[in-house]
């Protein structure tokens, strides 16, 4: 998971980068320029990528500037010691959370996940969509009660679609969440390949054989199980009962 990190103290930055990396984060260190150049790094569709600000004399103004620019990314402040008044000022300025060290990467992930799911309108840590139970704490989803094993990339893509369900998620949002500012960015067609793999896994595990993920041409993807109409259900039931009549078969029968 990508995260923007602002830590102006070089003595703290290296250790914090290592700690985040050990917890499977992909931190992107930013400088003061991050707040002074039209905020182009946080504009557009990358609203799920959190911003972690180490406390400094400009924390409140930095938060206010980000929010005034239209930034909707989760913003978390990291402090060396408890300071209720400073925390209140940061939260009032637009921060989503104010955390005191020591902090583990796993706790940070849980806090970010809680902020993201509330942003997308999910109060609980999981949702049920058709045959799928999607979790927002990093776990693989369940399909018909059985865990579906996903690779790290597949899970990152699936969670972007699940968070927005049943709304459509553009390919650019998914791509940015998975690859972000990585130097070795692949072509965006790789998202189609991963989506195909995920759909196949769901299809194989779903009792209905429904892949659940819909491709909306030119718009993106959405997690939306197939809905079988009452007429289709009746037709299926009628078909199951029907017996084909052949000459010589005295039992000319079936539902008519």
* Count of discrete structural domains: 2
Number of helices: 8
Main beta-sheet strand count, sense and barrel state: 5 strands, parallel
Ends distance: 58 Å
- The overall strand count is 11
CATH topology of the largest domain, what is it called?
Answer: Rossmann fold
Cα-atom radius of gyration:
24 Å
Question: Could you outline the blueprint of secondary structure elements for this entry?
Answer:
Elements: E1 2-6, H1 10-22, E2 26-29, E3 51-54, H2 59-68, E4 75-79, H3 84-93, E5 97-100, H4 105-119, E6 126-129, E7 132-135, E8 142-143, E9 146-147, H5 152-164, H6 171-179, H7 189-205, E10 213-216, E11 220-223, H8 230-241
Parallel strand pairs: 1-2, 1-3, 3-4, 4-5
Antiparallel strand pairs: 6-7, 7-8, 8-9, 10-11
Structure commentary:
With 256 residues, the chain is an alpha/beta fold. The chain has two domains: 2-119, Response regulator (Rossmann fold, 3-Layer(aba) Sandwich); 126-223, Winged helix-like DNA-binding domain superfamily/Winged helix DNA-binding domain (Arc Repressor Mutant, subunit A), CATH 1.10.10. Helix content is 39%, strand content 16%. The chain is built from eight helices and eleven strands. It has helices spanning 10-22, 59-68, 84-93, 105-119, 152-164, 171-179, 189-205, 230-241; strands at 2-6, 26-29, 51-54, 75-79, 97-100, 126-129, 132-135, 142-143, 146-147, 213-216, 220-223. Strands 2-1-3-4-5 form a five-stranded parallel β-sheet, with helices on both faces. Strands 6-7-8-9 form a four-stranded antiparallel β-sheet, with no helix packed on it. Strands 10-11 form a two-stranded antiparallel ribbon. Strand 1 (2-6), helix 1 (10-22) and strand 2 (26-29) form a beta-alpha-beta unit. Helix 5 (152-164) packs across helix 7.
